[in-house]
Design goal:
The protein is built from ten helices and 14 strands. By secondary structure, it is an alpha/beta fold. It has two domains: 9-71, Orthogonal Bundle (434 Repressor (Amino-terminal Domain)), CATH 1.10.260.40; 87-270, Metallo-beta-lactamase, Chain A, CATH 3.60.15.10. Strands 1-2-3-4-5-6 form a six-stranded mixed sheet, with helices on one face. It has a six-stranded mixed sheet with strand order 7-8-9-10-13-14. It has a two-stranded antiparallel sheet with strand order 11-12. A hairpin with a 5-residue loop joins β13 and β14 (262-263). The chain is elongated. Bound molecules: fe (ii) ion (FE2). Fe (ii) ion (FE2) binds next to loops.
Amino acid sequence: MAYALEDEFGDIIGKARRGQNMSHAETATAAGISESDLSRMEKYTLNPTETQVYKLAEVLNLDGAKLLSIANEEWEPEPIQHSDDALEVITVSAPVGGWPVNAYILICKATNEAAIIDTAASPDQILKQLGTHKVNTTAILLTHSHSDHTDGLPRLQSATKCHTYIHKNEPKPRSAGKLQELEHSDIVKVGELKVTVLDTPGHTPGGCSFHTEKVAFVGDAIFAGSVGGPNISYQDEINSVRDNLLTLPDDVRLFPGHGPSTTVGEEKLHNPFF
Ligand SMILES: [Fe+2]
């Protein structure tokens, strides 16, 4: 079976290196390996030795043991095991621009009201699921405005006629309606569920996560075993994930924009960025 993580060793060291503004040459010299070997490791054409993994982790401020476990393909998160009395999460995964992307539907079981989280991973499939579950959709929540998470927004707005929410610091995507702005600790109600906004910038200026009960939708802030590309600020990304997501209870399940879901506890144990 293919290793299921969104990012593996090469992506992880590439993101850490670029996030800390280190060149190939600088990183390779500090780690005692050749520049071309480092490039090949980032492109998955050369496997690192255990010593090289630990050395690169030290140079890039990553956790060496956790990085080695991913380099050796020894860890992936446990699949979802039990359901929740208060809510249901439906995952819609589909390729966008050639790469798999996740959108989610959060359903309040008490009222059958629902929110759509991100809109690009097949609006058709999202609408089909809403119909199958016979829910009343009351909100569209956007973790960030990258097109692989927001294409499809006008279509879903027209079909559901519900409010769309996005962080106030985030560039605004193409929209068929008014966008309601959010900030850290705001609450959006989905039926009886109180969904709290958590700032998780760094991948984008106003990236945010949505937390309720034992689930959080985290966009591209954190992936199982990795983080999203630190396009705006590596330090903001690391700090906000550490302070606003990894402080949630260990059994909170994190649903990212790419790759498998994971939990706070598993990320604390296995994510080499933390
Ligand atoms: Fe993104």
